[in-house]
Specification:
single chain; about 375 residues; alpha+beta; 6-stranded antiparallel sheet; 11 helices; elongated
Length: about 375
């Protein structure tokens, strides 16, 4: 009973530290995003403040999802420093507990939080992100100047009954089903250029793109205006909704079937595979962040250099996230398998953190 009470106390400290970190970061992100939306509204068109706040609130869970690993690291450091400053860790050690025993509750919290983030939180965040994209497109999508200001755009090479085509869109909504600011380069079945389409919008239907309000240009002919134009495609609107949309609006449960159908459509699915592996590795990532936090938070305050150790831990954490992002981009580019690009950095920090803790505790 006594061990259970102590375990629950330590776990509560870890959970409180992680939730506090997420709450602070979430508030800052929401305010920054809201200010940016207010700037866009004032520059490109008047949008009600309540609508802007709703867009920011719907996008917030997806932004917070990026910070889960960071929050576990910072929250764990804070929890261990709190226990250390009050000499509670020293009392636990004097009572015969090893480092692995009082780290156990924190590791369990990390694992459970990672599982919750993967199985429950991610689908909710993806749904919110999808709704925010629709609301954003509805509020701002009709303004050409705003569309130009967004920059970048999306590109897709696809095939259909009439041949291949390349689609460019300034903005995508409903996970790629609705496009705004569209340019299409069409090729015949022999691979020769046939025509160019410039249109205000496009919608993905069953077996074709429905292009509205634009112009079609062919070699040696004058451009012709059209109200509706159809371009064939093998993309399935019920399944391949991420071809031009953002991968972060697709939930963990949808990704396996989406990967399968995307590959059947002869599209690159590497970004989807990397996202899926990133979600699968999340419990292990949270566990690794608890161990990394322990390497810099267990020394006694009387020994000094606590600030130096904590700073080193934060630098190590940022270095890990930078390495993970570089590895992730390598996986998306197809230069390494998706599982290796995602799992290797996490496995590396696990091995290093465990080695450092064994050296600190057992010499």
């Amino acid at each position: 009973m006594r061990n259970f009470t102590l375990t629950r106390y330590i776990a509560a400290r870890f959970l409180l530290g992680i939730i506090t970190t997420l709450a602070v970061c979430g508030f800052l992100i929401f305010m920054i995003d809201l200010v940016e939306l207010l700037r866009l509204s004032g520059k490109y068109g008047s949008v009600p403040a309540l609508t802007l706040a709703k867009i920011a609130a719907l996008r917030l869970p997806a932004y917070i999802e990026f910070l889960i690993g960071f929050a576990v690291l910072v929250g764990s450091i804070g929890a261990l420093l709190f226990l250390n400053r009050k000499s509670e860790l020293a009392v636990m050690r004097a009572g015969g507990m090893s480092v692995w025993q009082f780290l156990g509750p924190g590791m369990l919290v990390g694992l459970l939080l990672g599982l919750f983030a993967m199985l429950v939180y991610n689908p909710l965040a993806a749904s919110g992100r999808d709704q925010s994209e629709r609301l954003f497109a509805k509020s701002f999508g009709n303004d050409k100047n705003l569309l130009k200001a967004q920059g970048g755009g999306s590109w897709l090479r696809q095939a259909g009954d009439d041949g291949e085509s390349i689609i460019s869109a300034v903005a995508a909504a409903e996970r790629g089903l609705k496009l705004t600011g569209v340019m299409i380069l069409s090729y015949d079945r022999d691979g020769h250029f046939s025509e160019r389409l410039d249109a205000a919008s496009a919608s993905l239907k069953q077996g074709y793109w429905e292009i509205t309000n634009g112009w079609v240009s062919r070699l040696g002919e004058e451009p012709e205006k059209f109200d509706t134009y159809l371009v064939s495609t093998y993309l399935n609107p019920d399944r391949v909704q991420d071809a031009l949309g953002t991968v972060y609006s697709v939930s963990f449960w949808e990704l396996p079937s989406l990967i399968e159908v995307t590959e059947k459509a002869k599209l690159s699915a590497e970004h989807l595979r990397v996202q899926y592996e990133s979600l699968l590795v999340r419990p292990l990532l949270c566990l690794a962040m608890v161990l990394l936090a322990a390497t810099v938070s267990l020394k006694s305050f009387r020994s000094g250099r606590i600030q130096t150790m904590v700073t080193s831990g934060m630098i190590g954490g940022f270095g890990f996230f930078l390495l993970s992002e570089i590895s992730r981009q390598i996986g998306i580019a197809g230069l390494a398998s998706a599982w290796a690009a995602v799992w290797v950095p996490v496995a590396l920090v696990l091995v290093i953190s465990t080695t450092v803790l064994l050296h600190q505790e057992d010499g």
